[in-house]
């Protein structure tokens, strides 16, 4: 099966799976009920992640890449399972973290996907991680997984951000000649696209009909973390790690900044609140659809910096320093922006 056919198959399978699972969700108890910080007015099925993974596995099998991607699929399945468990029972965060770490262990020692270097960030020479390789690999992948998870607070946002990121990684894999990674990334785009048909606020629907759930947001983030490592490591990988970070800059910046602000306020970095960038945009008067469009456009632009910087052979320090100072610029801006908003209230 050609890659374009695999994309279409994944989209069709995901859309069909979403419809079927949404009907079964009330019986299984996989519903997100309104109340508290939640803005939706009715119970919404939490089956998007399950539908996406089922479509991924089936389309990968049809495309003939399931065996080559077996360990990857097993790791994603682990994260989907613990996420679905949380969607069903609201388990303690430590259990979700433990399974993510186990999945990272299988990734590292089973598939030899490991962050051994962060590249030539300073223009001197590539910076090897040596004894810190394993812990920093786990930290990076779990960090991306939870950053995407934390973006899942606006209809269509986490799915759209993941779609854009996988599209950029598919382009990188294609340009690097990494065929299996290209097909799997394209399948992810198709599977996410099928889900977004029910998650976006399309004409005639005032709110999402289906949510990703933790099964979806955590697994998509984990998969993006895997791709970010896999496409940047080894002698046959041309994509620099800093360019891969540009692809997922928006969720990372939002997550790290928000956790830093919570710690500074004397709260747990994992405490839930409504201080994400999409909450700020809506508080400033943008609609949910306008906020979504703006953030997806920004994320697409960030990914373009990484991709075209790589294609143009821009030196890695010239990608690193804008990334570094850009994050701190965002952090101090959003911190002051919230203060100004509260002062105006």
From TrEMBL:
Its cofactor is Mg(2+). Keywords: Cell membrane, Magnesium, Membrane, Metal-binding, Transferase, Transmembrane, Transmembrane helix. It comes from the Bacteria. It is a multi-pass membrane protein. It is found in: Cell membrane. Mg(2+) binds at residues 149, 214. Signal peptide: none annotated. InterPro entries: Glycosyl_transferase_4. The keyword Transmembrane applies. GO terms for molecular function: metal ion binding; UDP-N-acetylglucosamine-undecaprenyl-phosphate N-acetylglucosaminephosphotransferase activity. GO terms for biological process: cell wall macromolecule biosynthetic process; cell wall organization; lipopolysaccharide biosynthetic process. Its EC number is 2.7.8.33. The chain crosses the membrane at residues 6-22, 43-60, 66-85, 127-145, 157-175, 181-198, 210-229, 241-260, 292-312, 318-334. Its main location: membrane. One of its GO terms (cellular component) is plasma membrane. This is Undecaprenyl-phosphate alpha-N-acetylglucosaminyl 1-phosphate transferase. It comes from Usitatibacter palustris.
């Amino acid at each position: 099966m050609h890659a374009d056919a695999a994309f279409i198959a994944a989209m069709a399978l995901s859309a069909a799976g979403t419809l079927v699972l949404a009907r079964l969700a009330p019986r299984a108890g996989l519903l997100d009920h309104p109340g508290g910080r939640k803005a939706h007015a009715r119970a919404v099925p939490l089956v998007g992640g399950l539908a996406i993974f089922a479509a991924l596995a089936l389309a990968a099998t049809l495309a003939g890449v399931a065996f080559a991607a077996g360990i990857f699929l097993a790791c994603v399945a682990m994260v989907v399972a613990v996420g679905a468990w949380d969607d069903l029972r609201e388990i303690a965060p430590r259990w979700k973290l433990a399974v993510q770490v186990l999945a990272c262990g299988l990734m590292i020692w089973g598939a030899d996907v490991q962050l051994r270097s962060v590249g030539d960030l300073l223009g001197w020479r590539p910076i090897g991680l040596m004894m810190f390789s394993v812990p920093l690999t786990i930290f990076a992948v779990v960090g991306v997984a939870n950053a995407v998870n934390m973006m899942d607070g606006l209809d269509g946002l986490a799915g759209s951000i993941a779609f854009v990121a996988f599209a950029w990684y598919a382009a990188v894999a294609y340009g690097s000649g990494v065929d299996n990674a290209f097909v799997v990334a394209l399948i992810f785009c198709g599977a996410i696209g099928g889900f977004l048909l029910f998650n976006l606020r399309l004409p005639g629907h005032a709110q999402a009909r289906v949510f990703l759930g933790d099964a979806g947001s955590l697994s998509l983030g984990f998969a993006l973390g895997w791709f970010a490592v896999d496409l940047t490591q080894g002698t046959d990988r041309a994509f620099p790690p800093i360019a891969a970070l540009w692809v997922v800059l928006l969720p990372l910046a939002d997550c790290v900044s928000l956790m830093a602000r919570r710690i500074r306020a004397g709260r747990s970095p994992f405490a839930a609140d409504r201080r994400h960038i999409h909450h700020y945009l809506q508080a400033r008067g943008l609609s949910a659809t306008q906020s979504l469009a703006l953030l997806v456009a920004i994320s697409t632009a960030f990914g373009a910096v990484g991709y075209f910087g790589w294609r143009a052979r821009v030196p890695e320090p010239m990608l690193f320093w804008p990334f570094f100072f850009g994050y701190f610029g965002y952090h101090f801006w959003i911190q002051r922006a919230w203060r100004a908003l509260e002062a105006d209230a």
